[in-house]
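Batch manifest, entry 17 of 40.
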Amino acid sequence: MGTTVTLGQKVAALYNMCQSATQQVDEYCNQPLRATLATETQSGPDYWLTVQVGSGLGRMVLQRWPVTQITNVQVAASAGFPRQWTTVPAGYWDIERPPMGLYGTNAPSGAGEGGQAVLIAPSYVNWYNGRNGLRVQVQYVHGWPHTSLTATGSASSTTITVDDCTGWGPPGSYSAANATTGAIGVVYDGASQETITCTSASVTAGPGTLTLSSALQYTHSAGVMVSAMPANVIWATSLFTAADALTRGATATTVRSLPGHASGPTGADELRVDAELKLRPYRVTV
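Output type: structure tokens
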């Protein structure tokens, strides 16, 4: 079969394994780790949406973390249809435990830190309509910025065109605790690998253009990955891909043992266990 498979079929099979590995990472972590702009709605006051005794602050526990930016908060009566949303003014909500940020940027570090709750100013979340008498909708950015070039990025250029700007731009009304600029990331391009810092994004989410704090040192082709994802997450994804390849019947490669060489996981199950160990700090457990 291997001698009759076309190059296109091999590339398609490789893409399928990479997509499967990404899904396995998200499944194990109970959330997508790639930065997304999420809109989440919950009813309360109840378990996930509460009113703090004493301060009167509303507290909503979100499904995903680390929350790096809140873009909008709205409230409405649960019994009201169609919904009559009241927008909470900017500045009247906070990330309860924002990530510290990487080198003073908007990107979370690889330490698995940060929270998943938002605090809302008193009176917006209340018991006036009883338990579950209120609906609260929060739009927020979470996770690590991750994208790829959609056009060639030329050396000396201070902008790049990418397939997803989510999380790359500078902080809005409230973001990472010490963020002073947009996210920092790595252009993964072999010997031409370099680090970039984003100062602005043309859109909040989706395809667009990123403006960089300094010019590119190298030229990078379309399709090159640009990511703020922790190295352990990228490595875990590679391990899941290798495990899938072995499961699909790929043969192992054997090399001569060398002095000082330490053997690592070799079977598909061992590779998956190693991947899961690397992903533990990023798993949602609440």
